[in-house]
Design brief:
Layout lengths: L12 H27 L2 E3 L6 E3 L3 H8 L1 H33 L5 H13 L2 H11 L6 H8 L10 H29 L3 H9 L4 H12 L1 H17 L2 H7 L11 H11 L3 H25 L7
Antiparallel strand pairs: 1-2
Helix pairs in contact: 1-13, 3-7, 3-10, 4-7, 5-7, 5-11, 7-10, 8-9, 10-13, 12-13
């Protein structure tokens, strides 16, 4: 079978087609990253009137700062909680909708809606739900003898931002898991059913192994989401409190840079966060991908 190849008579046309995306990437990603990397080696006064080169002094202070180490550990716990909760619930909803025949489109539409909600709006919604004065959940929890107070209890605050962040990401995971489940060959499921395998056994022995590429992709996306994209949720719900109990790395960059006006340390933290995510992504591709069955 002869394949057709697209040829461009004008050699500049491919570059012109790529130019808009390349310009956007350069202006909004490459240039800010380069500026942050440069600023991480400098000390600048809050008004930007003078700049002094200090080398790796900011990085040394970060590694010696117990608050930064606490924020790093806190971010790791937060990322694990958000990734686990969002992926498990997304897979559970996808498996439930995949078994439906007539109303699957209705449930799919309802489950996708949270993804259209802005992160800060999601944070405010869950803040109202868990509000100690007017929230429904604290009211019912108090009825069973459990006092909820995320304004004073750091553990409660971490649970709040983890639920809010995971709720925002469940829809994204649901869509990919549902697409993966619907692409599983029906012949395999029918053969397993004929052999006497029940729905649960078919899911864990056939569907779940075939979903490993999708699971691996979503694992990387969810970790990056928890590390980078949860700033609006933290800011809208707890603002890093109480007593910095919910101050993650990305929120600490904001606190030190925009609130504390320590631009050099904030830039160093952003570079460190980028390096951490790059190392985690490398480890995932280097070791976790080995277990993926394509």
């Amino acid at each position: 079978m002869e394949t057709k190849r697209t040829t461009f008579n004008n050699r500049l046309l491919p570059y012109l087609l790529l130019a808009p995306q390349l310009i956007i990437t350069l202006i909004f990603f490459i240039w800010p990253a380069a500026q942050a990397f440069k600023s991480s080696f400098e000390r600048e006064d809050p008004f930007g009137m003078s700049t002094v080169f200090v080398g790796i002094q900011h990085y040394q202070r970060l590694l010696e700062d117990p608050n930064y180490i606490d924020a790093l550990l806190r971010t790791m716990v937060f990322a694990v909680c958000v990734t686990s909760l969002a992926m498990i619930l997304g897979l559970a909803f996808a498996a439930a909708v995949d078994r439906l025949t007539r109303t699957s489109r209705i449930y799919t539409t309802l489950l996708v809606w949270p993804y259209a909600v802005a992160p800060v709006v999601a944070g405010v919604l869950w803040w109202f739900v868990f509000n100690t004065s007017t929230g429904l959940l604290p009211f019912f929890l108090q009825k069973i003898g459990f006092k909820w107070d995320h304004d004073l209890n750091g553990t409660h605050a971490m649970i709040l931002i983890s639920i809010a962040a995971a709720w925002k990401q469940i829809s994204y995971n649901f869509l990919f898991f549902l697409a993966g489940l619907q692409s599983v060959p029906h012949s395999l499921m029918e053969a397993a059913a004929i052999d006497g395998s029940g729905p649960v056994k078919r899911f864990f022995t056939i569907s779940l192994p075939l979903l490993s590429p999708t699971t691996f992709f979503l694992f990387i996306i969810n970790v990056n989401y928890a590390m980078f994209d949860t700033f609006p949720i933290v800011d809208a719900t707890t603002a890093g409190g109480p007593a910095q109990a919910t101050t993650t790395l990305v929120y600490k960059v904001y606190q030190d840079g925009f609130v504390g006006l320590n631009l050099g340390s904030s830039s160093a933290q952003s570079v460190m966060l980028m390096m951490i995510v790059m190392v985690l992504t490398f480890v995932q591709f280097r070791y976790v991908e080995r277990r993926v069955q394509y």
